[in-house]
Design goal:
This protein is of the alpha/beta class. It has two domains: 2-31; 46-188, Rossmann fold (3-Layer(aba) Sandwich), CATH 3.40.50.150. The protein has helices at 2-31, 46-62, 80-86, 99-108, 139-152, and strands spanning 68-72, 91-95, 115-118, 132-135, 158-162, 173-176, 183-188. The chain has a seven-stranded mixed beta sheet, covered by helices on one side. It binds S-adenosylmethionine. Residues 33, 38-39, 41-44, 71, 73-75, 78-79, 95-98, 101, 121-123, 134, 136-137, 141, 162 line the site of S-adenosylmethionine.
Length: 189
């Protein structure tokens, strides 16, 4: 009886240790960009995700030249991958610092010649070739990013900012699909 009790305790202990190790590894892989005081890997979702994708798709459809679409902090590839599948004539670049979302995005982009994911800090990335940019980042990051966008982006580049505004910049359009939570902003450089 005592042996059985000991065995159950041992099994429970082993399961707890494994669960803790898996959680720590998962947190390390997903939120390590968060340790740099930036946004967690929460994807754009629901009606805002769909509206962002269909708005950009409409622009890509109309364009006769090949455009470059970037997502700064591309997470799991939620916004870029559906567009890259649909528009092989345009280029898509996702910049993502966190290891797990980056690795999953790369796997999902398998076989897509027009899609690249780079594991980088987007503050160190050259964004001057972008025609369209997606942003879904915390206000503190948007503040830092505003200067980079103004300094590096060419005239006419469109920025789609989900939920949080680009500071000190007037949006060309504010699209509200309900509350602030369901709002995105379009900026034209
Ligand atoms: C809120 S998620 C948005 C994901 C995706 N853009 C979307 O809309 O579904 C923000 C992502 O930005 C990444 N990120 C934050 N700061 C970054 C930085 N300086 N360089 C690269 N990635 C960063 C985070 O790791 C996170 O995955």
């Amino acid at each position: 009886m005592e042996f059985l009790y000991f065995l159950l305790l041992l099994i429970a202990g082993i399961i707890s240790v494994v669960a803790i190790v898996i959680s720590v590894v998962f947190i390390y892989l997903t939120v390590n960009a968060g340790f740099m005081n930036t946004s967690p890997s929460v994807p754009s979702s629901g009606k805002v995700r769909d509206a962002l994708i269909s708005d950009v798709a409409a622009r890509l459809e109309k364009s006769t030249e090949s455009l470059t679409v970037m997502d700064l902090g591309s997470g799991w590839g939620t916004l870029l991958l559906p567009l890259a599948h649909r528009f092989p004539q345009h280029k898509f670049v996702g910049i993502e610092y966190s290891r797990l979302p980056y690795a999953v995005s790369c796997l999902r982009a398998h076989k897509l010649a027009n899609m690249r994911f780079l594991r980088q800090d987007f503050f160190k990335t050259d964004i001057s070739s972008a025609d369209i940019i997606f942003l879904f980042l915390l206000p503190s990051t948007m503040q830092k990013l505003a200067d980079k966008c103004h300094n590096e982006l060419k005239k006419g580049t469109l920025i789609y900012a989900n939920r949080f505004k680009l500071p000190s910049t007037e949006p060309a359009q504010t699209i509200s699909l309900g509350s602030d939570y369901y709002t995105y902003y379009i900026y034209e450089m």
